[in-house]
Every structure is written in structure tokens, then in C-alpha cells.
Amino acid sequence: MDKLIITCALTGAEVTKALNPAIPYTAREMAQSAREAVAAGASILHIHARYDDGRPTQDAARYGEILKAIRQACPEAILQVSTGGATGMSREERLQPLSLNPEMATLDCGTLNFGGDEIFINTENDIIAFAQAIQQRGIYKELECFEKGHVDMALRLHKKGLITGPLHFSFVLGVNGGMTGEYRDFQFMRESIPADATYSVAGIGRYEFPLASYAIAEGGHVRVGFEDNIYLEKGLLASSNAQLVEKVVKMAGENGRDIASPQEARAMLRMGEKR
């Protein structure tokens, strides 16, 4: 079985220090958290930008400051920027980090209710525009799918030539308004993608580690981090992103899977192929 690629989602756009004081906001905090996560076994760092007071932003200058700090702290890691941003942001806002030519970026493949009045909007034209902007810059994309319809959208646009390969999916399960993260959901999503595609799972809240165990056992890859879950176990806050990564590394070891280095992850995901 292939080595396990671990992504660490450092901070997200919504979770706050009021929920867990270890959530990184500043560039310095992000860099320190990134360094610890990579040392623990993460190859990919999923990055949202925050201002020092915790407000989410897609501002390219702020992203540039954060990416520079993280690159200095762990130059070997794969840096993956979010084009999702936060709910309510315009297409133009969300596209800003691409101007920095990151190595990797997310591409959200559908609209989703986020609870209450929050709707994460990704129209078909949005998805096409994001795909073209990412691909024109030669940036490797991760296809974020919160439910089966998002996979279908990605594959339909791929068939039309609007989303190019290699296809690497991220199944983000357990979000309020999306699919839950039960084993049946994981299997449904995994069996819905092409045989030559790769995938990672991101379980929200209590689904984080059960989904990690499914992916580890079945040859997939795993995302953990404060964006998705702030607890090491029920009732016990994680003290760092690295703690969450370390738990997955231990799970992988118990299942006989080694951990991929950033360079190995690049090869496994075929990041050098033309897009």
C-alpha cells in the first residue's frame, strides 16, 4: 500500500481562540504551527489567512506574509492555499491568493448550506472560473467535495475538458448541510471517483479520526487540523495541530502504513504533470 500523505489544515476561517486558545492567527503563529505539524508528519499544509485579530481574509498581501513565514519555517512542505475563503466573499476576493502562484490550491466543487443563514456558494460558473484561474497558472488543484453531487460536478467538468487532470479529491465530510462521515458515506464517495484518481478525507468534528482510520485502511490519504476539529479526543482539547497529526501517524503505524515525505507526496500526486 502507498505511503500515507497527511494534510494539516492549520486554522480555517471560522474556529477561534475562544474555542481553543491554540488556534493560530498571526503569521508567526502560523509558521510555528506549520513547523510543528511538518515535524510530526504532515506533507501538505492547507492554509487560510487571518488577520492578527482572527478575522478571515483572502487579501493577497496578507497571504503573502503568511506564506513567506511558513516557507521559511518549513521550506520542504507543500503549501496549499484555500480559494474557498469564508462565506459571503465574492469570486474576485476568493481568487486573490492565486496571484502568489502557490504550489497547490483548493477548488470547491459545489454549493452547500453551512447552517443557519450561511450558504457557501459555488455556482457552476464559479467552479469553471476557479478551475481556469488555477490551471492557467499551473497550480496543482485539490477538488473539495462535501457530498456526492460535488464529485459528479467535478467529473462532468473534467469530461468537458474544463477541469484537467491529475484528479485529486478531498472528501470533506461531516459539515452541517453536507454528507455525514459514516463509513457508508466514505465508501460512496470513494467508489464514485475514477480508479486512477487520488483522494484524501477530512472529517469534521467527531468524524475526523474515524474517517482517518477508514482512509488509512483503504489506501487513501488524510487531512486533520484545527480547521476541522479542535479535540484530541472527546472533551480533551488538542494543544496543537501537531498533536492531531501525531495521532494519525500513530494510527498509520498500527495499520502498517509509512508516512510520505513532502517530496514523496509530490510524486504520488503526480504534481509535476502538465495541467
Descriptive keywords:
TIM Barrel; alpha/beta; 275 residues; 19% strand; two-stranded antiparallel ribbon; 36% helix; eight-stranded parallel β-barrel
Explain the overall architecture.
The chain has 275 residues and is an alpha/beta fold. It has one domain: TIM Barrel (Alpha-Beta Barrel). It has helices at 27-40, 60-73, 91-95, 124-136, 148-159, 183-190, 208-218, 241-254, 262-268, and strands at 6-9, 44-47, 49-50, 56-57, 78-81, 104-108, 112-113, 119-120, 140-145, 168-173, 198-203, 221-224, 231-233, 236-237. The protein has nine helices and 14 strands. The mean pLDDT is 97. An eight-stranded parallel barrel has the order 1-2-5-6-9-10-11-12, surrounded by eight helices. A two-stranded antiparallel ribbon has the order 3-4. Strand 3 (49-50) and strand 4 (56-57) form a beta hairpin. The radius of gyration is 17 Å and the shape is globular.
Number of helices: 9
Here the CATH topology equals TIM Barrel
Tell me the radius of gyration.
Answer: 17 Å
Order of helices and strands: EHEEEHEHEEEHEHEHEHEEEHH
What percentage of residues falls in helices of 4 or more residues?
Answer: 25-40%
Secondary structural class: alpha/beta
CATH superfamily: Aldolase class I
Low-confidence stretches: none
The total of beta strands comes to 14
Shape: globular
